[in-house]
Design a protein that fits this description.
Length: about 180
């Protein structure tokens, strides 16, 4: 019979899986507590969190939210990294951690949205623009036409002002132009 603590943990894991845009399963064997603490800090800075839980509880959570495709990766010591906002930034941290020569993080796979992703596919995710870059691109695309319209209106106003000034100069008597 499951304990209340395990039921609560499965509910919490289900919520995290449901909210995450990227969930990556990794094998953390060979890592010391200090190494895991440092990795968790880097992940936290990029808007992600790392959870170490029993595979059985992770399987139940995956089934609860309809992400059964995560189940084959849940073998051996497992840590799950959940990214909620900027998946490219988190993927870069994970790929960097998996390429360290001393104690590499062994990525097993994961989910990008609802689609399964292989460890090699995570490298492609790192090439996506970060959230800030994507927002800047969208803002640039939206503001460019507006800037053009403002420039055209400003040029038209300037041209009208120049024509009026030229007409004023024409109508002034020659004596006033010499004095000015």
């Amino acid at each position: 019979m499951p304990t209340q603590r395990k039921i609560d943990l499965v509910a919490e894991l289900s919520d995290k899986m449901q909210r995450s845009q990227l969930a990556v399963v990794a094998d953390y064997r060979g890592f010391t507590v200090a190494d895991l603490f440092a990795l968790r800090g880097k992940l936290r800075e990029s808007g992600a969190e790392m959870i170490v839980a029993k595979n059985t509880l992770l399987r139940l959570a995956a089934r609860n939210v309809g992400k059964e495709s995560l189940e084959p990766t849940l073998e051996g010591p497992t840590a799950v990294i959940f990214a909620y906002d900027d998946v490219a930034k988190v993927a870069k941290v994970l790929v960097d951690a998996s390429q360290v020569k001393v104690k590499p993080l062994k990525l097993k796979g994961g989910l990008l949205g609802a689609s399964p992703i292989a460890p090699e596919g995570l490298d492609a995710v790192t090439k996506l623009p970060t959230r800030e870059q994507a927002l800047a691109q969208v803002l640039g695309a939206v503001s460019a036409p507006i800037s053009g319209v403002v420039g055209v209106i400003n040029a038209a106003i300037t041209n009208v002002a120049l024509v009026i000034q030229a007409r004023i100069d024409q109508l002034q008597p020659a004596d006033e132009q010499a004095a000015a």
